[in-house]
């Protein structure tokens, strides 16, 4: 029998063993894939100390030199797309095509952030005083802790480390306990790129390891992606040190379908949005508000499209469009939310059951009609292939319902009426709105939420500048 790989933390440029380990399994089959460290406080302390001692020299290098490392890592990733994509699918469950997109997007993201090396801007402002200039200098924060979820386990490493490193910070990454193998694959390639020791570090572990990072006085910024509940705990742990927070949290994206919409487009985009990564995406359509005139037709067509989805083990069948959910807890949570929605009066149009495929955490693509604003299914994140639909009379009602939600990450609208699109632009209170297209952000945009969906944001110029502070110098001569 082949031996099971044992993953190791990466601290100060070296892989190091850990005393305690936990098992990592394939969510489609239950097969044991690896053993991964459960890092203790001492590991976290060592990683932060390594990042701290590397930061000054790293931060003093010209940004263009730091960018060269990002480009080198991107090139290594591109040489390994097929192998890494398989690792992602095996460990996290998304289909191979999407896993390949994730690896290529990660490489592109590193290159994109590297392009900013010659574009970081300070400012010079005129002073109220004679013979004085005011300089606004952009400087690195110091040591960043990047705490990651499991749904895009490979890309999210780059989303944190690329802007952090480019701007002169060093980083300690804590991947999700569900997907450490991805991070290990990334780190093994990075270790071949001669990055100075301590600039990039990884500690594996569960919530307690993330908690130790969050409460650590040696961290200057916590860049977290994950659930609202964990975001609240991180904010509380960071409070005594007033550590800077960047929180990318959950979503409950509304999709508004008006009577004049291109229904072919709306059905395809919303269905794809619910199926991609088995509905485990923070920004994808989670609730539909459809105008009464087209409600029956839209519901019938999207139910048909959802029901036709081929699901199963992505590594066993090439034509699978949707893999398993991440674990038993995720499966139970999705099923319980569907059961409660039905008990509350929602009508089952298609799906609604755990899919017994012999192994793995599979759920049938599900459509629920007749939903109401007071139902949990219209208010709480689902993280599975379940689409609840509520009928509305007009855009005003849809916008009011969309905004009345604790989350405010992404939203979408389907209409051919430019005036209605402009009204939504003005009135919908979300970090992102997609009009007549699927929900998928661009790296040059700004991915951020309002309300409980987060603090700060990622991507583009504004995401890059989150990793710097502004030092103001008054120079009188
Ligand atoms: P999670 O909050 O359970 O875990 C995320 C990470 O936090 C893991 O590494 C975990 O070990 C760690 N963690 C757990 N408890 C902690 C604590 N007390 N202190 C510090 N760290 C702790 O989230 P998840 O289940 O891995 O991911 C799914 C969630 O992530 C969803 O809510 C989804 O919407 C969100 N998400 C948001 C975005 C975004 O850009 N806004 C992107 C992807 C995922």
From TrEMBL:
Aldehyde dehydrogenase domain segment(s): 20-472
Database matches in Pfam families: Aldedh
Keywords attached to this entry: Oxidoreductase
Listed Gene3D superfamilies: Aldehyde Dehydrogenase, Chain A, domain 1 (3.40.605.10), Aldehyde Dehydrogenase, Chain A, domain 2 (3.40.309.10)
Signal peptide: none
InterPro entries (alphabetical): Ald_DH/histidinol_DH (IPR016161), Ald_DH_C (IPR016163), Ald_DH_CS_GLU (IPR029510), Ald_DH_N (IPR016162), Aldehyde_DH_dom (IPR015590), Aldehyde_DH_Superfamily (IPR050740)
Entry keyword annotation includes Oxidoreductase: yes
Transmembrane segments: none
Active site: 248
Protein family membership: Belongs to the aldehyde dehydrogenase family.
Protein name: Aldehyde dehydrogenase
Source species taxonomy: Bacteria, Pseudomonadati, Pseudomonadota, Betaproteobacteria, Burkholderiales
UniProt gene name: aldA
């Amino acid at each position: 029998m082949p031996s099971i790989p044992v993953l190791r933390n990466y601290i100060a440029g070296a892989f190091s063993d850990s005393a305690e380990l936990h098992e990592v399994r394939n969510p489609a089959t239950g097969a044991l894939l690896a053993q991964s460290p459960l890092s203790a406080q001492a590991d976290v302390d060592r990683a932060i100390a390594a990042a701290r001692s590397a930061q000054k020299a790293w931060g003093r290098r010209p940004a263009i030199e730091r960018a060269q490392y990002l480009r080198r890592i991107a090139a290594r990733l591109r040489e390994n797309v097929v192998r890494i994509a398989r690792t992602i699918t095996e460990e996290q469950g998304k289909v191979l095509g999407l896993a390949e997109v994730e690896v290529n997007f990660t490489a592109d993201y590193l290159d994109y952030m590297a392009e900013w090396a010659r574009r970081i801007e300070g400012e010079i402002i005129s002073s109220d005083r004679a013979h004085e200039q005011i300089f606004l200098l952009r400087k690195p924060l110091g040591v960043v802790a990047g705490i990651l979820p499991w749904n895009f386990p490979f890309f999210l490493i780059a989303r944190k480390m690329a802007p952090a490193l480019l701007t002169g910070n060093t980083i300690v990454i804590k991947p999700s306990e569900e997907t450490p193998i991805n991070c290990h694959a990334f780190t093994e390639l990075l270790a071949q790129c001669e990055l100075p020791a301590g600039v990039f570090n990884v500690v594996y572990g569960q919530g307690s390891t993330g908690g130790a990072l969050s409460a650590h006085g040696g961290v200057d910024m916590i860049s977290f992606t994950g659930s609202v509940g964990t975001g609240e705990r991180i904010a509380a742990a960071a409070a005594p040190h007033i550590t800077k927070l960047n929180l990318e949290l959950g979503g409950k994206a509304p999709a508004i379908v008006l009577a004049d919409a291109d229904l072919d487009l709306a059905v395809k985009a919303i269905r794809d949005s619910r199926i991609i990564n088995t509905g485990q995406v923070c920004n994808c359509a989670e609730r539909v508000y459809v105008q009464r005139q087209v409600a029956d037709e839209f519901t019938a067509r999207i139910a048909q499209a959802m029901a036709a989805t081929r699901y199963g083990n992505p590594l066993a069948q090439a034509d699978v469009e949707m893999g398993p959910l991440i674990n038993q807890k995720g499966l139970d949570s999705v099923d319980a939310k569907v059961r409660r929605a039905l008990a509350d009066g929602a009508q089952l149009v298609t799906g609604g059951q755990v899919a017994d495929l012999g192994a793995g955490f599979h759920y049938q693509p599900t459509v629920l009609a007749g939903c109401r604003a007071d139902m949990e299914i219209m208010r709480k994140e689902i993280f599975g292939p379940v689409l609840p639909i509520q009928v509305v009379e007009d855009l005003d009602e849809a916008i009011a319902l969309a905004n009345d939600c604790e989350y405010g990450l992404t939203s979408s609208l389907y209409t051919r009426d430019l005036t209605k699109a402009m009204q939504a632009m003005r009135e919908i209170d979300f970090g992102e709105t997609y009009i007549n297209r699927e929900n998928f952000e661009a790296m040059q945009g700004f991915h951020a939420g309002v309300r409980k969906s987060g603090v700060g944001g990622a991507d583009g110029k504004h995401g890059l500048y989150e990793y710097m502070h502004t030092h103001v110098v008054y120079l009188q001569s």
